[in-house]
Design goal:
Elements lengths: L1 E2 L2 E2 H9 L28 H32 L3 E7 L12 E11 L2 E7 H4 L7 E4 L5 E2 L3 E5 L4 E6 L20 E6 L7 E12 L14 E4 L11 E3 L5 E8 L10 E5 H14 L5 E2 L2 E3 L5 H7 L7 E6 L4 H4 L7 E5 L2 E2 L3 H9 L6 E8 L2 E8 L1 E2 L11 E2 L1
Antiparallel strand pairs: 1-14, 2-4, 3-4, 3-6, 4-5, 5-9, 6-7, 8-9, 10-11, 10-13, 11-12, 12-15, 13-14, 14-15, 16-23, 17-18, 17-24, 18-19, 19-20, 19-21, 21-22
Amino acid sequence: MALCRHHSTIWRFVRTHGAGLLIFAGTAAAVLPAAGQEQPEMVSLDNRARLFAELARDVEHLEQQGNILKRAVKLVTPSVVHIEAKRDDDARNLNKTVEEAGSGVVIERTGKYFVITNRHVIKYSSMSNIKIKLSDGRQLTPTQVWADRETDIAILALQAKNLIPANIGDSDKLDIGDFVLAVGSPFGLSHSVTYGIISAKGRRDLQLGDDGVTNQDFLQTDAAINPGNSGGPLLNLRGEVIGINTAIASSSGGNEGIGFTIPVNMVMVVADQLIDHGQVVRAYLGVQLDATFTREEAVAAGLQRPEGARITGITPRSPAELAKLKPGDVILTFNGYRVEDDDHLINLVSLTPVDKEIEISLVRDTQTVRMRVRVGNRSDLKPVIETSRNE
């Protein structure tokens, strides 16, 4: 699994060593019709004129629909930035300069401006080595940087006038098949736009190297995402940001039609906490979960198939103990969201405001039970040594 960042030295090598690398080339050959192949029907000049006129009318209708894409791109482009981050360890390697390049999107919070991007784009760089290039040509350096390792989200504070923040959408409303646009700087080509659909939702088991991205709930898209797109926005056709592009599945290092995006609802929970508190304060429930919940166990619990999250243990003096949850309970909904599996519950709990009381539904002894629980602060949780997963 590749994080879609871009090392600018690689792009300079490609650009310097022949533009032909960017051009499809081939040899021309005469192609003769095969025996028995049907030949195109001859059309008179009068009919050709009529058919061209009909085609023009049909294309005009299609172009009107296509204008939606153009309008969305025009509205969001001023909010998308190109980021270059020089690594702080370059001083140890005087013969080579390494830069991470990525993308970002401007947001506004309480009258102040910030850029959302991926942590992996800027994690090796100090503030003075991070350059943010705006669509109007200005280049800025952030005044403050916050990052969250568990979600791979970073926030860069800006001090500048006349910035244009993006509109934020609702990623919970997305369905598989929805049309989306990706905007970013693939291979350093800033403000490039690609088009596709949401291919899948709820990808929570990606292996993203040693970056420690444990809170995963990725959207999958076939909109072309390449190195340098990291941190750039994924948009709906309303021009609203519905995700932050983060990674690609690729055997070549380039786009192969499988890209992954952090849903913007998750992004904004993390962003608001970073801006307000300088860190993400995560909630906890105090349960150990069964990561291998089988079909046989689900049927025995009264379910038709494995779903939800099965509790295998309760942390003493935790919110779960206070709410009288028990081992063997299968949590089906949490705060109105249907729980798909243990990873999903971990994400839902982690991003819930600390001390918030929420409703859960569960199956206990084949019966559905509803109860309320107030989640606690994970920093108050002492480490528990367990072979199963903790939340």
